[in-house]
Amino acid sequence: MALGLAIGAALVGQGSLCAAEKPAAATATFAGGCFWCMQPPFEHLAGVLTTTAGYTGGHVAHPSYEQVSAGGTGHVEAVQITFDPTRISYSDVLDVFWHNVDPLNAGGQFCDLGPEYRSIVFVHDAEQRRIAEASKRALQDSKRFDQPVVTEIRDAGAFWPAEEYHQRYHEKNPVRYRFYRWNCGRDQRLRELWGDAAGRGERPHETIGERVDDGSGGAGGTRGVANDTVAAADTVAEADARGVAPSRAGGS
To answer: Which among 22, 103, 207, 215 has most CB atoms closer than 10 A?
Structure first.
């Protein structure tokens, strides 16, 4: 009996030790233009725990979407990622970021222009800064581009989660999301920059204007895509009229 209790106590102690030694989740924060488009590339990566759309880099506490869009707060739209560093490295997460942005554009991203849409790597410690700076330097030295890589690297600060209707927008409003993404030219530009590696991390998705023929002649064919385009336009007009989801024309 006493031996059994002793063994049990020892096992409990070992379990507590293992729990204490388990590494804490790490955090990565990136700005890459419209945050609607920056959650999908990361959320399905093995080892990623959460993704949150939000605002960072500014000087106003608890900023609203309207404040950030109007300018003057200093914030950018961003995504914050928590991940298990034993399953995925910061370098791998950073690599996905690069392949989902235009690192040559200092004025914004794709159709969204303005300081709130700049591409920025926000680093949370000295090791992240070392990795980010080395990665940016390697990208520049690769001669892949004939222009300088202008993505900034800055220390991370306060991160303010965006309004709930912005979180996982691609799932809540898939048609409008695809319409926005296609209309913004995001995928087209990413393919120009990165070729087959464009959009790394994101699951394949049908974009408006693509012909997806499943052989059935149903909604998977050209008619379905055309109907989606009309539905998306109707959705945008209706939402803007109600004021429940600001238009992404000219901004997120």
So the answer is: 103
* pLDDT-based confidence at residue 15 (cuts at 50, 70, 90): low
- CA pair distance 108, 78, nearest whole angstrom: 12
pLDDT band at 214 (very low <50, low <70, confident <90, very high): very low
Could you give the number of structural domains in the chain? 1
Q: Is 26 helix (H, G, I), strand (E, B) or coil?
A: strand
Told to judge if 34 belongs to the known catalytic residues of this protein, a careful annotator would answer yes
Domain membership of residue 119 (yes or no) is yes
Catalytic residue among 34, 37, 111, 184: 34
CA–CA distance, 200 with 176 (Å, rounded to integer):
22
Say if 10 falls within a structural domain: no
The backbone torsions φ and ψ at residue 48, rounded to the nearest 5 degrees and listed phi first, read -80, 130
User: What does the pLDDT look like over 110-142, one tens digit per residue?
Assistant: 999 999 999 999 999 999 999 999 999 999 999
How does pLDDT run across 160-180, given as a tens digit for each residue?
999 999 999 999 999 999 999
Is it the case that residue 7 has pLDDT exceeding 50?
no
Residue 179: give the domain boundaries: 26-242
3-state SS class at 82: strand
Q: Identify which of 46, 112, 221, 134 has the alpha carbon closest to the alpha carbon of residue 121.
A: 134
91 found inside a domain: yes
| Cα–Cα distance, 172 to 43 (Å, whole number) | 15
157 within a domain of the structure (yes/no): yes
* Count of beta carbons in the 10 Å neighbourhood of residue 212: 13
Predicted pLDDT at 239:
43
Cβ neighbours of 178 (radius 10 Å): 22
What helix, strand, coil percent values describe the chain, rounded to 5? 45, 15, 40
